[in-house]
Amino acid sequence: MSLLSVRDLTVKFAMRDETVTALNGISFDIAKGERLGIVGESGAGKSITGFSLMNLISRPGYVDRGEILLDGEDVVKMSDARLRELRGDKMAMIFQDPMVTLNPVLTIGQQMIETLLAHRKLSREEARQIAIVKLREVYIPSPEERLDQYPHELSGGMRQRIIIAIALLLDPELIIADEPTTALDVTIQADIMELLLELCQSNKVGLILITHDLGVVSQMTERTLVMYAGQIIEAGRTREIINDPQHPYTQGLINALPQQTLPGQKLRQIPGNMPSLTNIPAGCPFNPRCEYATDLCRTKVPEIIQYGEVQVACHEVERLHAEGARQEQNA
């Protein structure tokens, strides 16, 4: 049985003049202890997916249809009281900016201890000792002193380590990490990702990593979902998607990586931009930016099908694969 099973999840936003679709019928599973990556450009629907899994979509957004089953229990239909029990306990989220996540007027200790007391029957001293242990796990020096400090007294890297410690505080089964290193210096990002991977592996915690960086996904995850305009357009084992992408959009993302370009050359990029939610094109949403688009692509939305080792939503996948094979033979 999957730890998390998402089926036909559709999220809409009721705007003043129209209703727009932010997620359009996405489905996926994650097993206990598995690490799943969700990648795509800004506006693809990655963060909306993460917020939906925690049932944190607020008006004017709402879940139009679908289900999110955590250990068989539908998150969409849960009461507010049940959601408070669930969040942090069975499923936790790491947000992009630690300064937004942490309360600036409470000490680190107050925030960690109150979280523990809200979910566990403990004395304040027992909760404090657990908080110290968790800070040590994320390599915070002098954790006893850090508990009495405020967020602004700590560096960005230190704050993000504390966010990870809080996410692990109640030993959740699943962590959703939404661009967890965006606000950090490049030199610190690798350390934070390595720490997150180490802790998830040692604690057997499932991880959903939301990012635009395919390089990070290749190092951190076992399976990957590629999203575009609120839809999953390719899914499979990370190794297969990185080494042999089937969808033209995934190929474009990989070709745009700096290591794919020789020194001194211009970086390759996908032409055009992600469509806005109010102007999703007919047919395949990627067709205006795709050099392989046909009339069928412009009129009919492709279904996601099993092709080789991955699932892909592309009308032209067989033709493109055949052309690629011919080019390799002629090379």
Automatic annotation (TrEMBL):
InterPro entries: AAA+_ATPase, ABC_Ni/Peptide_Import, ABC_transporter-like_ATP-bd, ABC_transporter-like_CS, Oligopep_ABC_C, P-loop_NTPase. GO terms for cellular component: plasma membrane. Signal peptide: none annotated. Pfam families: ABC_tran (PF00005), oligo_HPY (PF08352). The keyword Zinc-finger does not apply. Keywords: ATP-binding, Cell membrane, Membrane, Nucleotide-binding, Transport. GO terms for molecular function: ATP binding; ATP hydrolysis activity. It is a peripheral membrane protein. It is found in: Cell inner membrane. Its main location: membrane. NCBIfam families: oligo_HPY (TIGR01727). This is Peptide/nickel transport system ATP-binding protein.
